[in-house]
Amino acid sequence: MASRGLCLLLLVCLGVPSYPDVSGISIETDNKNVKAEEFKEAILSCKHKFSKGMSLRIEWKKIQSQGVSFVYYNSEFTGDLRGRAEMLNTGIRIRNVTRRDSGTYRCEISAKSEEGQRLGEATITLTVLVAPATPVCEVPSSAMTGTVVQMSCKETEGSPPSEYQWYKNGVALLEKTGTGSARAANITYTMNKKSGTLLFNTVTKNDTGEYFCEASNGIGLSQKCSVKRMQVEESSSQKKTNYQSTSEKDFKHTKSFVI
């Protein structure tokens, strides 16, 4: 006990480092996952329960893979948000949002009180929704019967990613599900709405026609590529088979009349 008392006495005499009393505070947001269409406005809310007379320090940061950057610091906006954003109490209104504004934002609030420094933060994810661009479609101008043909349709601007619908001669092609009307239609192709491919494992002359694709993601207007025609011709081997078959029929027909 004597040694413990001596240690306490030494600490008092030598002095103990003094640290400010830092305590956490509750910061709330109306929406942790904000979605806004491109070129419209987005509101990132950040609420606290401090009394009005307290001195607050407010900072907003954007968290990116390459690090954290300030968005609002020393009572002013920085970077891309300068001139496009304004404070709503401790929240932010961003006007004319672009796809570059998508990301994770952090609101940080600190305040000094009689109990010491108080800190709190809230994280909000902003997703900017972008309408699709005109898709690029690849359709072969010609093909031989019996061969494999794949058409493609793609656009990379849309957020969320677009889905794709193929049309032949102005009529929407059915998706091959193996049941219902799609099965009854005896579909000979496979359409992938996610990737935008249209695959014919064995193309036939009936597949000749005018094709185009439409991209849509529920944002803005859907976009179509220009119409392209695919002409399917019989292969040389198929022509030879048809010629031989016709010759044999003609020979049998002629023979039946020989006396």
Sum up the structure in keywords:
single chain, 259 residues, mainly beta, seven-stranded mixed β-sheet, six-stranded mixed β-sheet, 41% strand, rod-shaped, disordered N terminus
Given the structure, what is the number of helices?
A: 3
Question: What is the overall silhouette?
Answer: rod-shaped
Give the percentage of residues in beta strands: 35-45%
> How large, in whole angstroms, is the Cα Rg?
35 Å
Amount of helix: 10-25%
Largest sheet: 7 strands, mixed
SSE topology string: HEEEEEEEEEEEEEEEHEEEEEH
List low-pLDDT spans: 1-22, 178-182
What's the average pLDDT?
83
In whole angstroms, how far apart are the ends? 138 Å
The assigned structural class equals: mainly beta
Task: Please give the number of β-strands.
Answer: 20
Concise account of the structure shown:
This protein has 259 residues and is mainly β. The protein is 15% helix and 41% strand.
Outline the structure in words.
This protein is mostly beta strands and 259 residues long. Helix content is 15%, strand content 41%. The protein has 3 helices and 20 strands. The strands form 4 sheets. Strands 1, 2, 4, 5, 6, 9 and 10 form a 7-stranded mixed β-sheet that branches. Strands 12, 14, 15, 18, 19 and 20 form a 6-stranded mixed β-sheet that branches. A 4-stranded antiparallel β-sheet has the order 11-13-17-16, with no helix packed on it. The protein is rod-shaped, with a radius of gyration of 35 Å. The model is unreliable at 1-22 and 178-182 (pLDDT under 50).
